[in-house]
Amino acid sequence: MSLDTSIQLERPVALVTGASRGIGRAIAFSLAISGYRVIVNYRSNAEQADSLCSEIAAAGGEAVALQGDVAKAADVEAMNAWLTRENIYVDVLVNNAGVLRDNVFVMMSDAQWDEVIDTNLKGVFLMSRAIVRGMIEKRRGKIINVVSISGLVGTPAQANYAASKGGVIAMTRSLAKELARYGITVNCVAPGFVETDMLGEMNERQLTEMLKLVPMKRAAKPEEVANLVQFIASGACSYMTGQTLVIDGGLSV
After folding, report:
1. Quick one: residue 25, left, alpha or beta (phi over 0 = left, psi -120 to 50 = alpha)?
2. What number of H helices and E strands is found in the chain?
3. pLDDT tens readout for residues 81-136
4. How many domains does the chain have?
5. Model-level pTM greater than 0.85?
6. Is residue 55 a part of any domain in this protein?
7. Which of 184, 155, 115 is nearest to 248 (CA)?
8. From CA 78, how far away is CA 41, in angstroms rounded?
9. Measured between alpha carbons, how far is residue 15 from residues 82, 145, 222, 234 in Å?
């Protein structure tokens, strides 16, 4: 399966990592129906990725699934090689892929630390480095990093996750300054609690206690995060770079 490169100039391309489920899925669908041809990156769940591509096609959009683990340099190189073979230029890169391996700090294992840092932080580095070369050549492009309020305020039992997201926020600021001369913007979206599989695993008491912390008394819908990403990706957001936009219902205020 491949994208129709004959209409490359008419419809921009967005690559969304970790797009087979949750926030990434909503982002990919939102970008697709707003006019982007979307590359749906996934690590292991081909069935969900293919299902999303079918949903996008049914809605009149265009998408293709692309397997690869963003934490592995060889996988990222293989994905980039496919883009080159298909003559696809990525206009918007959404670094969304991420994992959670929560544990109290003194009990956190090396494996829990490494997996989160490798996927959430190193993965953004590997993907951005690969894709930005084309953006520099074209002298345009947007990188949008999905982070978390954990990278801004810190949360117990998430030292690894907070460090990874905080690292991405700092990297975003650095890249924004470095790449602005090439017409490339780099920004972050920082959600709070979102209605994803993680919340679905909580019991009613846990969910009630969690939502007490949110002034708006509810979690965000994935589509609400996707709408913000869609705005940043659009031409209406052309002068903002190096920023972290928080969407958390007031949780971090």
Report:
1. alpha
2. 10, 7
3. 999 999 999 999 999 999 999 999 999 999 999 999 999 999 999 999 999 999 99
4. 1
5. yes
6. yes
7. 155
8. 12
9. 13, 12, 18, 14
Catalytic, 182? Answer no
Q: How far is CA 93 from the centre of its chain?
A: 8
Residue 65 maps to a domain: yes
AA letter at 40: V
14 contacts: CB under 8 Å, gap ≥ 6:
28, 31, 36, 37, 38, 39, 90, 91, 92, 93, 94, 233
- Within the chain, strands assigned E span 13-16, 37-42, 62-67, 92-95, 141-146, 184-191, 244-247
> Taking the CA atoms of the chain, what radius of gyration do you get in angstroms?
18
Length of the chain: 253
- Domain region containing 203: 11-240
Q: Rounded CA gap, 57 and 88, in Å? A: 19
In a domain, 251, yes or no: no
Out of 42, 161, 182, 239, which one is annotated catalytic? 161
